[in-house]
Amino acid sequence: MSVPTTLGEHLRRLLAQLDAVQRGKAVDAVEWEYDELRHVFALLVMGQAVGLPAPPAEISLALLPEMEEELRILLRRLDTAQAPFSQLFSSLPSE
Fold first, then answer.
1. Taking a C-beta distance cutoff of 8 angstroms, is the pair 38, 70 a contact?
2. Per the structure, how many domains does the chain have?
3. Alpha carbon distance 76, 28 (integer Å)
4. Closest to 63 (Cα-Cα) out of 90, 42, 86, 77
5. How far apart are CA 53 and CA 56, in angstroms?
6. By residue range, what is the domain housing residue 76?
7. pLDDT in tens, 3-61
8. Arithmetic mean of pLDDT, 70-93
9. Nearest-5° angle of CA 45, CA 47, CA 50?
10. Which of 13, 34, 38, 68 has the most crowded CB, counting CB atoms within 10 A?
11. Model pLDDT, residue 2
């Protein structure tokens, strides 16, 4: 009689571990999708920085508070764009 209860406990533990793994994967997928949607939103609002058609100025200004983190990332990347290695590689001929 102790074997089925032990087997049942093992199955419950196994199913609980599988459940935790699947939930973790689902959370990771949702976080990745959220980040990608934020990137698309940033491109739609601040697309003129990369040559995309810009939305009307009123809409961009109204959405600017939502773009605070993206603007910080953009400024940080602009600062690192002036690094010596990036200047060296940008002066090499492209083929």
1. yes
2. 1
3. 26
4. 42
5. 10
6. 2-91
7. 556 888 888 999 999 999 999 888 888 998 988 888 888 777 777 767 777 778 788 78
8. 65
9. 155
10. 38
11. 47
